[in-house]
Amino acid sequence: MGIAYPAINDGQFFSGLIPLPPIKDQHRIVAKVDELMALCDQLETHHSNVAEAHEKLVSHLFGTLTQSQSAEDFSANWQRIAAHFDTLFTTEASIDALKQTLLQLAVMGKLVPQDANDEPASELLKRIQAKKAKLVAQGTTKKPKP
User: Fold this and answer.
1) Is the pTM of this model over 0.85?
2) Closest by alpha carbon to 82, among 93, 98, 68?
3) Whose CA is closest to 63, among 72, 53, 74, 48?
4) pLDDT tens-digit profile, the chain (146 residues)
5) What is the torsional sign of CA 20, 24, 27, 32?
């Protein structure tokens, strides 16, 4: 049932001969297939170990980069990554980790030189709130909803 080749009908198909190699050759073929499957299993294990080691390396390098205490440490850690950039970022996971690390470094303010004379963000927020309160008091803007 289910044969959809017009030149062969069921009767011809099921009455035909299917040649098989001698049993000795069949055993040899099975042994070779088993040997190749074992090699495939070894290759798969090796590949997963390499991928895991690569992921750990990328994670460690990003950890040292984000935890750098000084500009010199940051520069040295970045140079270590930049020297092997083309081999480190070959997988989608490593590229995603790079994106996340760059965002984290940007939030931490480590991507640009910091000016010690800049006021903290908390001071800026206080000035903004004071200016808003002044505008509300003057009637220029409406009081914001909580």
Assistant:
1) no
2) 98
3) 74
4) 555 677 777 777 778 788 899 999 999 999 999 999 999 999 999 999 999 999 999 999 999 999 998 888 999 999 999 999 999 999 999 999 999 999 999 988 888 887 878 888 888 899 999 999 898 888 888 887 77
5) negative
